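Structure tokens
________________
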Amino acid sequence: MANAKHVEELNKGVPHWNQWRKDNPDIKPDLSGDNQSHTILNDVNLSNANLYGTNLYGTYLSGADLSGADLSDAYLRDAKLCDANLSSADLSGADLSGADLSDAYLRDAKLYDANLSYAYMYKANLSHAYLYEAKLYGVNLYEANLSHAYLNGAKLRGVILRGVILSGVILRGADLFGADLFGADLFGADLFGADLFGADLRNTKLRGADLRNTKLSHAYLNSADLRNTDLSHADLSNTNLNYADLLNANLSDADLSSANLSSVYLSYANLSRAILNNANLSDADLSHATLTDIRGLETANISNANFSQALGIQLEEIQKRKTSNSIISQVKSISDKNQNNANGLNLLCEAIEMLINESQLNLTVNKNRCRELIEIAYVVSLKKEESRYPKFQLYVPDKEYKDKLNFMISFKEQKNENYEKTNNELVIDINLNKLATLASIGLGIPQSCCAIVIVENKSILAIQGIIKLENEDEVFGELLNSQSNLFGLLLNIEAPGRLNIVYNFKNNIKVQLALVEGQVRINYDPTQTPLANIIFVQIAKNLIKNNFTEKEVTINNFQLIKIIQRVWHRILKLAVDFGHGSQFVIIQNTATDKFAKNLSHYFNIDQLTTQKPNLGECIIKFFKRYLVYKSSEGNKDDIPKELLTEYHQLINSIDSIAYLSTIDGSIILDYSLSLIGFGGEIKNKEDLKDNCFELAADFGLDEPLFQESDSSSDLLNKEKSELVKLFIKSPLIENLKVWNFEEFGTRHRSAARLCTQQELDPFVFVVSQTGDIREFMNLEGKVRVLGPLRPL
């Protein structure tokens, strides 16, 4: 309860009050619980005063002396405290949200559980301050001093800490999810158990910091100084550490799966028991590093890595792996051979055997049984002219995941001579003499959502049951990065003499080997190609530019690009399933504005739209809701209704675009994925002779073309020419092969002709009636064609 006399003195004005304080130095003012909201108290002397629970909402306290004052539980929302002296003040539980604390002096201040959300703290001095469990959401700390501050458990999600002095800071268990720490000085900082998921730590100084048990997944640590840093048990999965300095760092038991460690300095680092599944260690220096009991190195990219005098690893094995030829190159050599129908099946089996030998998959059937299964499937496919032999799919799982399958039908123990007991379950054996068994089980099994599971039972091929192929990882599994557990072989029996075999690796790379008219060929997913990645990044750039303000922080641009990839995967898969053939044309936004009234120059089209459905708008609405959901502290199992609504609206828009492929003519969108029009045909008749070339791209199994460890922010700043150099490894002038357009129909030729119009800068997906997809784009004045492709 405030002292009435003290309140009376303060109400006489700041000059009177300050003189009264000077005349009565032994009095400790008691203004607790008083209401001084929106009053002007600039330069007031309130040192050591009792202001517990005082209402100072919107009060002007610039230059005030509040040193040693008790401001616990005070209401200081939107207060003006610039240049104020709050050293050693007690602000525990105080509400300082939106307050102006620029240039304020808060050394040794107690801010336990204080609310500083959206406060302005430019150049504030918080050295040695106590900020346990403080809420700092959206706070501006530019050029502030937090050296040796105690921020244990503080809430700093998404906070911009660029240029902040953080040396020796204590951030144990702090929430720094998506925080911007670019170039920050964290020398010797204590970040034990902190959450730095998706944080920007590029060029940071973390030398000697304690990062044990930290969550650094998807963070950016490019060129960071991590010398002598303790990162034991840290989660660094999908983290970008490109060019980081980790000399003598402790990474024991750290999870580095899918991390980008290219050109990283790891000399004398301790990586014992670290997980390196699918990590990129190209050009990394691991000399003298300790690699005892390291896990997953066999799946990592170690090209040009230096392992000299590394401990706990056989250098001979590494050298052998570094010099071995790519398995894809070997399989390509098979597909390039001249084949006839009889030889084609043998070459397909040979290619599959190579994949089995070189990959890390341990299939439930051996090489010989696999060859037998392919032969059985081929014979069944030849009988497809009979209606009782429909198309269906066989699945040979990886042994590690066999027991995780959810069977729709599992063949349990029954008294029947066709069954053989194995592991308390029964399986039906199949062979070339029992084709009717396989075909009858396949009868009525839709290939798109079900598969027959094949295992080996005492050296005999056998059917274990039937599974559903739908993604069950999460509600948004189709559009987000959900991991599939269907690793192994997926064999499609489609048409007479035609087989499609998808080999699904553990690093989420998929390769389809197809036997078509006796020829073996390799298909790739159309959304995981160099040309597609170039256009997807450009689409993401346009969506962010048109839908995010400069103040909004998009913490995961990579996720947006992945959503765009998944959106197009669904569109193209539906277009293939419809079997009509189609043309999806994407032209740049500036071109749309310029030629909106003159599209007839390029397209014979009447069905112009009012930008509905606006696919890009639906993507952004869903993406924004999803970011809020991911950054919230609530129960992640309780998905907000608004997020589900945006998700279903996005799916409906995707499907609407895909259904337009059943109409003759082009579907035209701009770089923001607004629908411009559909139907009609491309009109220009440019000569394609010597102007259209196949794209010789370097596809490999070591890593996807576009990974989360890539700096998506940097990608969005790149021009098209820079993206071309990034995604297309070899110079475009090499291996030029003229595209034989005369072998293709109207859709393909018109797509190539449209791509000669550089002012439109178009990109075209062409889906043929057979399901093959080709991509068209103009690169350096020449039309490039990539295909055939298949949505995998």
About this structure: The radius of gyration is 32 Å. The chain has 16 helices and 21 strands. The CA atoms of residues 558 and 712 lie 5 Å apart. The mean pLDDT is 79.
